[in-house]
Amino acid sequence: MQPPTRIARLVAPIVTFCLAGTLTGSVSGFDVTAVPEPPADRSTLVIQLREWESLTPPYERAELPEFTLYGGGRVIAGGHWDGSVYRAREHTLSPDRYRQIYRLAHAAGLARSVHLDQPVPATDGSLLVASLRTAGRLHTTTLVSPGETDVGARRRIIEFRRTVRLLALSTDPTRVADYRPSRLAVLVTGGWSGSPGDAGSIARQWPGPDLLAGVPTRVGLCTVAGSAGPDAEALGRDAPLTTRWHSGGKWLSVAVRPLLPDEYDCADLDRRTP
Hints:
Signal peptide: 1-20
CATH class of the largest domain: Alpha Beta
Helix content: 10-25%
Number of helices: 4
Keywords: Signal
Protein name: Secreted protein
Distance between the termini: 45 Å
Strand order of the largest sheet: 5-7-6-1-2-3-4-8
Number of strands: 13
């Protein structure tokens, strides 16, 4: 057995402290012994966290959630853009840590569907979406504009999110790998009727089928790669997000997004998009 890394030794006490704090502030009547065993199927969505900002470039809506947990402790974490292709990372939690995080999600009050509005109304903000599967049912909590001064139910969810982030940081880097999806979505996130125009933009011809014939979603017109051309990932990796692609008689902005294990087609992109 390998000795723990220096980062793991430093972060472990912080994680323990955060876990204790989340349990201390758990929902009234919470009984850890009543939490069922978490799912084992590695394609079953168990927990997901994502914060949606109100004013962002269209391509940012194509990014993966910051944290998605599947059965068996499989974690897929949001990453970065590589050209026009979004990259994510993957690792697997130990059985004990997986069970611990699952119980903490229950302690944070995520085992029910509820909307928590902003205490003080504002015209701009964000929406934190937290999902938890328990007893075979997926519950979703939405939290408007989470902040450090929040209390009560809002505070519990924020502390749970902080715990998850610390957990990701404490993962041994040698055990983290690039997420290799079996399916990719090619998304049209914008378009122009005339020529590219901007002198600094790159203009290219999309070599696959007409992208304007894609499925309408709240993320953009969607075509699952394969029908969009076998080299969608290579094409996107070699082109910045400012590239304008010509397809269907229009100049288009295109982003390539990996589909998660529980996403099978374009319609799935709208299931948890506000």
